[in-house]
Amino acid sequence: MDRDGRAKVAIASAGAIPHLVALLRATMSDSQRQAARALHNLTSKNTDNKNAVVEAGAIPRLLLLMKSGAPAVREQVVGVLRNLTGGGVKPENKAAVAEANAIPTLITVLKAVEPQVQMHIAVILYNLVNNSPCDDRLAHRRRPGSAERGRGHAASVNGWQPAVV
Question: 3-class SS at 85?
Fold first, then answer.
């Protein structure tokens, strides 16, 4: 058990993250799942590892796996994306996820995945539009006539507008 995060730091320092990101391209879904599972764990509560995963170019591949990966792969990929958009994330990382077309991709797969994955997708969408530095970058995707609400802009994609609470 890695209670203090030392193992996560050691694994990342040894250069594992780029190799795990490359393994997301494997042809065997179990290899993809295990790579995503490792990235999910490495990015949990570790900002440096979140940054390293983004810098390794994982976002486009993670989103592709959300679209076309096996259900077991999606269960792990959604955890990585949740970590990359959640607390302790550099604003640039959250913006990179949004700019990689994450919102329409996640909305598209939302109807086709298991309830547990749906819940995590909802959190990712919340993370992407809540007090986000990417709000202004997403403003160009707004539908004509949609109003600004609160601070920043709410993203509107394919007619989807996040609820204002």
Answer: helix
